[in-house]
Design brief:
The chain has 321 residues and is mostly helical. 74% of the residues lie in helices and 2% in strands.
Length: 321
């Protein structure tokens, strides 16, 4: 049995009384007493000051654009110009082809990085190191001038094509964008693979599944939920990087706008037209990315409820009512 000194007993009684007083203060006041008090919301004056400054800056920018010698009717007119639409089509073809090639190379390199074979790991690591370490524009120019190194593309006994004939602007842009994207996508896929619990692989191995089948049937499907958001960002980045193909004379959107404003000298108007098309395509792809993210996150505890899911839920509740 422990006997406390009188000082400790007094301290304990004092703390108990303080806790009791705090509890009584925390209790809600009766309605009659609550009416005696006025609730005053907190004021945030610097928020209003910051908002006012932002509005002033935006006003100056808008005034500058409106006062500039820009014919906005020309911007709208050329949105549906045949040359611009051809550039949009070529941009989309290059984007989809490059991302397909990048996805194949990225998944392959990510799987090779996880291989127990050291040669495969080093090859994949070297590929990622090389193409992440050099600017995309430099890669495009190297591909386009590959005939300086190789005079022809030859498969002995089958085919021999001069490199100048084979390496068209589209092929050079496809290889430059696709292989460069593959290096970045491989790191995104590898991060998604590492996010899957290692116990999943052990369980698959326990029931006799091979490494390749485990990766294809167990790991990659679960990793998709982690992979899709950064992969969507990479897709949109690749859309904007297609404009670099302008330097090797591929007729994408920016190159088409350049050909038009070289003839009519409406430089800023045609650049605005190209910018509007890039923004429109980015918005559309972002919408589909959100749809895919919502689809993959269904049934996941704690997952964010997306706009599309909320819209579907509201529509179903209206129909039920």
């Amino acid at each position: 049995m422990t006997i406390r000194p009188p000082e400790k007993i007094k301290e304990t009684e004092h703390s108990v009384l303080e806790n009791t007083a705090e509890t009584e203060q925390a209790r809600p006041l009766p309605a009659e007493e609550a009416k005696k008090y006025t609730v005053v919301p907190l004021r945030y004056p610097w928020r209003w000051v910051t908002a006012a400054l932002v509005l002033v800056v935006l006003g100056f920018v808008a005034k500058a654009f409106l006062a500039a010698d820009i014919n906005y009717d020309v911007v709208i007119k050329y949105l549906t110009n045949a040359g611009i639409l051809t550039g949009v089509r070529n941009t989309l073809v290059l984007l989809l082809a490059s991302m397909t090639l990048g996805m194949v190379l990225g998944v392959l390199a990510a799987v090779m990085r996880q291989s127990p074979n050291p040669v495969l790991r080093w090859v994949a690591g070297g590929y990622i190191w090389l193409f992440r370490g050099t600017p995309l524009l430099v890669q495009l120019l190297i591909w386009f001038n590959l005939s300086i190194i190789f005079e022809s593309f030859t498969i002995p006994g089958l085919v021999s094509i001069p490199m100048n004939t084979l390496m068209t602007p589209f092929v050079a842009a496809l290889l430059g964008l696709g292989i460069n994207e593959g290096a970045y996508i491989s790191e995104i896929v590898r991060g998604g693979i590492l996010a899957v619990d290692h116990g999943q692989r052990e369980a698959a191995s326990a029931i006799g599944m091979s490494r390749a089948k485990t990766m294809r049937r167990i790991v990659l499907p679960q990793a998709m939920r982690v992979i899709v958001p950064p992969l969507g960002n990479e897709f949109i980045s690749c859309l904007k990087f297609t404009s670099l193909a302008y330097t090797i004379s591929y007729s994408e959107l920016l190159h088409s706008a350049n050909k038009i404003y070289t003839a009519n000298f409406k430089v800023i108007e045609l650049l605005f037209t190209a910018a509007i098309w890039y923004i429109a395509l980015t918005t559309i792809f972002s919408f589909f990315q959100q749809l895919l993210e919502d689809r993959l996150s269904r049934g996941v505890p704690g997952a964010r409820v997306g706009f599309i899911q909320r819209l579907r839920r509201n529509l179903s509740l209206r129909r039920a009512s």
